[in-house]
Design goal:
The complex is a heterodimer of chains A (469) and B (201).
Chain A lengths: L7 H7 L2 E3 L6 E4 L2 E4 L5 H10 L9 E4 L16 H17 L2 E3 L9 H7 L8 E4 L13 E4 L2 H10 L1 E4 L3 E8 L8 H12 L7 E6 L1 H4 L3 H9 L8 E3 L4 H7 L8 H11 L12 E6 L6 E3 L7 E3 L13 H14 L14 E4 L1 H4 L2 H11 L9 E4 L4 H9 L2 H8 L2 E2 L20 E4 L14 E4 L2 H10 L10
Helix pairs in contact in A: 2-5, 6-8, 13-15, 13-16
Chain B lengths: L6 E8 L6 H4 L19 H4 L15 H4 L3 E4 L11 H9 L3 E4 L4 H8 L4 E4 L2 H8 L6 E5 L4 E3 L5 E3 L4 H9 L3 H6 L2 H10 L4 H4 L3
Parallel strand pairs in B: 1-2, 2-3, 3-4
Antiparallel strand pairs in B: 1-5, 5-6, 6-7
The chains are: A alpha/beta (469), B alpha/beta (201).
Bound molecules: iron/sulfur cluster.
């Protein structure tokens, strides 16, 4: 309708509706379907059982990342179950005509790292992946949903997703971040504020000066963790930062098509006066580096703060849940976390495994050694990130610091491939989930930025990175 | 998908909020390429000790819990990872519904696609259910959209009409989508992307 003002997510929705069902979900067309080894074998099996084809193999891209080794990746995978899963993805892709960037490909990497890196992820697209962190791709101004395996099957067969319209939440981050405060701290502070169910049923649009000032990679970090607030998706309107990032990438439009695309993409941002169901403001000027103290990503605080004392929390449910978390973490309430000894540092994942994250870590590790008590694993998000890091000398810095600089994959974010914590170990991780056992049964995770993680690796205890900048 | 029929069962109470899918089934069990055999891995790290011995106090290891087809759990059930294995594991254990005050979106969608009912009730109704004795049987009637408590009291719950129809009729969702293949083709025809708009040079 002419004259109607819309949010970017409404524009993306409207331009992808194939069919509306009265009183039911809409059929939404999907422009890009990213797949990986863990959530697809059962979907392909069903296609075979029903004699169906993949409708758009040309809009489907596969990689192997979750259960793959991050050392000696070209040797046969030792775990027979993981080996079978990886082999099955590769054979499914051959059978159904899908491009697969496997361990021998120089395009392999964590699915949410390679999408934007290759320019597969573009503004204005709808994107799905059988993975809850698919919102990462929203950073370029795409509507990107994490889906389950039945939906993977549906999209493979029909290129469509059944979806109900979402509510809209605008998160406006004003001001500018202080030195030592990063994109990770923005998103951890949002989740600490609204809780891990705080954005359920919503698509978040991040806006405001502090978001505009972020690099594309920082924007990806923010969007990546939208799911940790329960959101269906998170996105950021495209701007010159976006276009500059995408220009010249392998799958980005070329020549005349590039100019036409940019012209189209410039119409995507939310119209002035468009209405959101909710709006939240965050003052970027006052943000501090964040760290989590508990067993979900909403249990976070400024690194300078004290862990909440469960007894002081307002209601019984919160008291119980904080007490349960602190019992698992074996930490006292009411005391600062700074100075807490740690055993492991993990720098990597689809949240913070990109080149700028590794540069941040290297800025702390340059000329320093990691504590002899801390096993420090640094895992690049993709082969491209790994090569870039080597080219810039970051690999040398990590090795000289005594860190374990590994090969690309999800690694200890999800601990499926043997990279994992031992029971009782404390780990500062740049990944996205500190759930009980997420990094290995009995392991205890503190989520933080790459700067914070690197500072903790050096000192062996929880440390405010600003003391080392 | 089998049509969802009314049933009653003991209620297994797991009164913890924000139960994430990493707890429902830990990631190390996701290397399987099958949908089967996941019931034993349900809540593995809460249900078994490090040696694999069942922890007798965990609700699903108690006599009432073992036979339960309904789980009562705290707010925001199923948050975190999108793994559909969580729903498969719940179903293969023998559960058919979870009652909570709210569900994570992806879990809810995954559940409905497997004929597994996420029942969202009000905080008051949740408190009443929590107060039931351990062996109490609760009835689930999706067509009537209500729970039946011992003694005959009813608790109404909302379900959107599409999900309700799909569950009651056992609709195969992919089959339903593919009935609209001509709409999909029409969409594709009118949104042809130029050859080098997405492809490589
Ligand atoms: S890095 Fe972690 S969160 Fe990201 S896709 Fe891999 S397992 Fe999932």
């Amino acid at each position: 309708m002419p004259g109607t003002v819309k949010t970017i997510s409404q524009k993306l929705w409207d331009s992808h509706v194939v069919r509306e069902t009265p009183g039911g979900p809409s059929l939404l067309y999907i422009d890009l379907h990213l797949i990986h080894e863990v959530t697809t074998p059962q979907a392909f099996e069903e296609l075979r059982a029903r004699g169906l084809k993949v409708r758009r193999p040309d809009l489907t891209i596969a990689t192997t990342d979750h259960s793959t080794p991050t050392k000696n990746r070209l040797l046969p995978i030792v775990d027979p179950i993981a080996a079978k899963q990886v082999a099955q993805l590769e054979s499914n892709c051959r059978e159904f005509g899908i491009e697969c960037y496997g361990l021998r490909s120089d395009r392999q990497g964590i699915v949410h790292v390679i999408g934007p890196e290759l320019g597969l992820t573009q503004p204005g697209m709808t994107i799905v992946c059988g993975d809850s962190h698919t919102a990462t791709h929203g950073a370029v101004g795409a509507l990107a949903f994490g889906i389950g395996t039945s939906e993977v099957r549906n999209v493979l067969a029909s290129q469509c997703l059944l979806q109900w319209p979402s509510k809209t939440l605008r998160v406006e981050v004003t001001g500018s971040l202080k030195p030592g405060v990063t994109a990770k701290d923005i998103i951890l502070s949002l989740i600490a504020r609204i809780g891990i169910g705080g954005a359920t049923q919503h698509v978040i649009e991040y806006s405001g000066a502090a978001i505009r000032a972020l690099s594309m990679e920082g924007r990806m970090t923010v969007c990546n963790m939208s799911i940790e607030a329960g959101a269906r998706a998170g996105l950021i309107a495209p701007d010159d930062v976006t276009f500059e990032y995408l220009h010249g990438r392998p799958f980005s439009p070329k020549n005349r098509h590039w100019d036409l695309a940019v012209e189209r993409w410039r119409k995507l941002p939310t119209d002035t006066g468009a209405v959101f169901d909710r709006t939240i403001q965050i003052d970027g000027d006052t943000l501090e580096p964040m760290i989590t103290w508990g067993t979900n990503p909403g249990m976070g605080m400024a690194i300078t703060a004290a862990i909440p004392d469960p007894a002081g929390l307002p209601n019984a449910v919160e008291r119980e849940s904080a007490a349960k978390a602190l019992a698992y973490m074996n930490l006292p309430g009411g005391k600062p976390l700074a100075g807490q000894p740690i055993n492991v540092v993990f720098i990597g994942s689809c949240t913070n495994g990109r080149i700028s994250d590794l540069r941040d870590a290297a800025s702390i590790l340059r000329g320093r050694k990691v504590s002899p008590h801390v096993r420090t694993m640094i895992v690049p998000g993709s082969v491209a990130v790994q090569r870039q890091a080597e080219a810039e000398g970051l690999g040398d810095i990590f090795r000289a610091a005594g860190a374990d600089w590994r090969e690309p994959g999800c690694s200890m974010c999800i601990a499926m491939n043997g990279d994992q914590l031992q029971p009782g170990e404390y780990c500062v991780a740049t990944s996205n989930r500190n759930f009980e056992g997420r990094q290995g049964r009995g392991g205890r995770t503190f989520l933080a930025s790459p700067l914070t993680a690197a500072a903790c690796a050096v000192s062996g205890v929880i440390t405010d990175a600003r003391s080392l900048l | 998908m089998k049509p969802f029929v009314p049933f009653s069962s003991p209620l297994a109470q797991l009164i913890v909020r924000d139960i994430d899918t990493d707890q429902i089934i830990p990631a190390r069990f996701l290397k399987t390429t099958s949908k089967e055999g996941l019931g034993d891995q349900l809540f593995y790290d809460w249900r078994y000790d490090a040696s694999g011995a069942p922890l007798p106090d965990f609700i699903l290891n108690t006599p009432a819990g073992r036979d339960a087809q309904i789980l009562l759990a705290g707010d925001n059930f199923g948050c975190g990872s999108s793994r559909e294995h969580a729903v498969w594991a719940l179903g293969q254990f023998g559960l058919r519904a979870v009652i909570s005050t709210s569900f994570a979106d992806i879990f809810r969608q995954n559940a409905l696609k497997n004929g597994f009912l996420p029942i969202a009730v009000s905080a008051e109704a949740y408190a009443r259910l929590c107060a039931l004795p351990a062996h109490a049987r609760v009835g689930v009637d999706l067509a009537a959209q209500q729970l039946e408590l011992p003694g005959g009291d009813k608790i109404a719950f909302p379900v959107d009409s599409f999900a309700r129809m799909c569950l009651l009729d056992g609709v195969d969702e992919l089959g339903w989508i593919l009935k609209h293949a001509s709409d999909i083709a029409a969409y594709e025809a009118s949104h042809q992307s130029s050859p080098d708009a997405t492809g490589e040079p």
